């Protein structure tokens, strides 16, 4: 055997002699690129998995039917942290081509293995690659990982679940782990009698094995990418219902949370039926499972037929969940079910176009929930989505929607605000431009043409309007270049002189860098506008640097970007802003609530960029005393609150006190109108929750007294009475400010069976001004038993927003950086949340974070988020330099 092996290794060396990549055993590795060769295509995986929930290990085997395109001795595929215990190649009749196991080379930097075949694999012939493997269940949140939960009796139970997107299927079984390599999967899972096994497809039949184990054999899947494969072994309970087209929908959760699954079942059935109608394509699998995993890093994952969720994204408890919790659950389900078509049925060619998955799914949340649950008023949140996108896109560190991403860290970073939120907003703009019907029929055409296949950016534009040759050219200006355009409007009589430029918040036209950062940027912008004399929206496509529009006679005002259906900023001349400020003061209902929120956002973004004086934006929102819609009201108050939070940390007691006094005096009427109940529409309840939280945070005495009364009554009842769910978090926050209240809430956190309630308690615990308590929370989050690791990134972010935790959180991150990277993986949403969350409030040159990022340059050189963090701090420094004195003077004048 030894002699034969040496001969094989000799052949390996000569076969790979021109390659300069070295495997772990010192031999040349036959492939040097990050992406796999395309001359071997997987057709069908026959996968056996056996997790042992006692030893926390798993073993398995995979037999992959492969199609060889070019003659070769090598099969190169992905594997990460797997011990390959056997490898061989079988012929078409599944007979062994070789007597001995084949050698396996490993190249961990690319997470690849190579199997050497002494006999050439011939193009056009059918072969099977057979591998046996084993590994420990992962400690983190990727690959095949372990999770646990505690029963009501305090017993800890273990389960094993998967999360493969984007590049972690290779941690569970050797595979061709790139989205282009779609294949069928036949899965078998071995388990004990007290557990169930779930996978993408229904169980075909179950076999009892000799050692008391059971083997569930699942139906063969449709063609899909590796990142969508899923399998779970657990002891969960479920509720089920069949849709009108015969799809079995089930919601799974830990047994004692079974009663929290019923709303998700209702929503999933309704949303699935909506999508089948909207896309005019039946959901192609016989079943759809939605399962709440106790340990889950992101919000949810769209595995085909077995979608996985964080518990807060799926479970709804009417006794403790708020109206915002209900909306969140509905939107997340809407997102993952949209993926069953966008992403699963049609998949992007490569991760550079992940926005084709995520931008569409984010946008379809709004389309689907508005159609199925109009009472939830989901359209109120679309503006917030676009505001978030603009916040990132107006920094120079932004990126194009479709841009290069090669290694796993770069690929993980693609799952960001640009892919999700900007993607959704340009699709919304496009839908408005094309009309709803044209947009919908184009989507159906796209899905039908590319189903079970992969697509690129331009394939979508071709499908959306196959007779509109202009559309592709237009949309490339939105997807292939970064940033957001600013359209400046100058009015002279009946003429509007419009120009476009790139909108940047940290660089002004007077800066020498400004011109460089503008070079080459040009968008094709579908402008919309209304005037004081027009009853209908007017349209114009701006595809040059400047243009002139002619109005129908003299008008009092012009408002561009009607209902904020477009993704662009507007700056008016002084007279234009004056007219709009006066319009809001005299007759704000002359424009829609979306237009009013858009004007507020637009004005304060221009202030940040140094394009509009702060006092003009503050004058604009003085009309809010008469505003009745929650979206513009919360937008305006939100800016005042963000200024307060930043200045509070700068030790400027006069401005801090004046701003607090102004907010409480100016908005007292609307605050005093709020009831401590769950009454009213969804919009009423959202406003109540936000306003009372702010009023108590600013120390408004009537608010504090009411919250304390609720809190003490709740404690006296041993927390058996139900608090109004929309104000529960505010009540907890007030209760957490003294020592006994904080410790009582920490105890309640440990025993609560509702994740929605635990989120509210944790937020309250992190609001204490006691730095020792804040540090204890962070340490509990790092340790992971009382506070789960999945909640650590949000906890760090929440502590950082607290003036007492401002530096504490950042120092904690610096001290524990390597542990955090190991826990969450570089480039992940959690690491981005931690970096942006802890640095986002810094606003002085002493707080610039470059020094720390330089010290870990070997890691951060791969990361785009560190550039975002640095630029955010620079933006805050500039804001204070430009606006602090203006704010101080304006407040003094108003209060006097």
UniProtKB/TrEMBL annotation:
Domain Peptidase M1 membrane alanine aminopeptidase stretches = 263-478
Listed under GO cellular component are: cytoplasm; endomembrane system; extracellular space; membrane
Q: What is its EC number?
A: 3.4.11.-
Q: Where is this site: Transition state stabilizer?
A: 420
Spans through the membrane: none
The Aminopeptidase N-like N-terminal domain covers 42-228
Lineage: superkingdom:
Eukaryota
UniProt cofactor(s) = Zn(2+)
Ubl conjugation in keyword set: no
Q: Which residues form the ERAP1-like C-terminal domain?
A: 557-874
Q: Which GO terms describe its molecular function?
A: metalloaminopeptidase activity; peptide binding; zinc ion binding
List the GO biological process terms. peptide catabolic process; proteolysis
A Pfam family that this protein carries is ERAP1_C
Give the note describing cofactor binding and stoichiometry. Answer: Binds 1 zinc ion per subunit.
| InterPro entries named among the record's database cross-references | Aminopeptidase_N-like_N, Aminopeptidase_N-like_N_sf, ERAP1-like_C_dom, M1_APN-typ, Peptidase_M1, Peptidase_M1_aminopeptidases, Peptidase_M1_dom, Peptidase_M4/M1_CTD_sf
This protein's membrane topology, according to the annotation, is: Single-pass type II membrane protein
**What CDD domains does this protein's entry cite?**
M1_APN-Q_like
UniProt subcellular location: Endomembrane system
- UniProt keywords, alphabetically: Aminopeptidase, Glycoprotein, Hydrolase, Membrane, Metal-binding, Metalloprotease, Protease, Signal-anchor, Transmembrane, Transmembrane helix, Zinc
User: What is this enzyme's class at the first EC digit?
Assistant: hydrolase
Cite the active-site annotation.
336
The record's similarity note reads: Belongs to the peptidase M1 family.
Q: What is this protein called?
A: Aminopeptidase
Q: Which organism is it from?
A: Astyanax mexicanus
